[in-house]
Amino acid sequence: MTLGIRALLVGVASIALVGPMSASAQATPSTGVSAVILSQTTIGGYDYILREITIAPGGSTGWHFHDGTLYAYVRQGEITHYGSDCAVDQTGGAGTAFVERAGAGNVHVERNLGTEAQILDVLYVLPTGSPLSEDAPNPGCPFE
């Protein structure tokens, strides 16, 4: 994890620990995905939500986009992240950090093609009141 992303994740977590709350991933269709909100706060019109996401082997987030920027860190497993052009745009194992850009023009899906669960620590920076994700149809890729 880059020092900047780690500092941001730690800072937000220390500002607003609200206790763990269960949540399910929001995407169409998702399979094998579970998530827990670790921390959240609102500052200056933005919700900062720290979430642990687990994707089982063979699982997928489904196609979706976000109304704000996400900063992710792979704690375990191997990521395979696809953009709307059906091409892999992010890969990597434990220790990999990546950013998901905001907006409907950034539809994507994360698939776990490995044999162990993926565990991601994700910081959502969303306009206040926005959903964690917005469902999107498959943009024409030969997989979900």
Automatic annotation (TrEMBL):
It comes from the Bacteria. Keywords: Signal. This is Cupin domain-containing protein. Residues 53-121 form the Cupin type-2 domain. Residues 1-27 form the signal peptide. It comes from Nocardia yunnanensis.
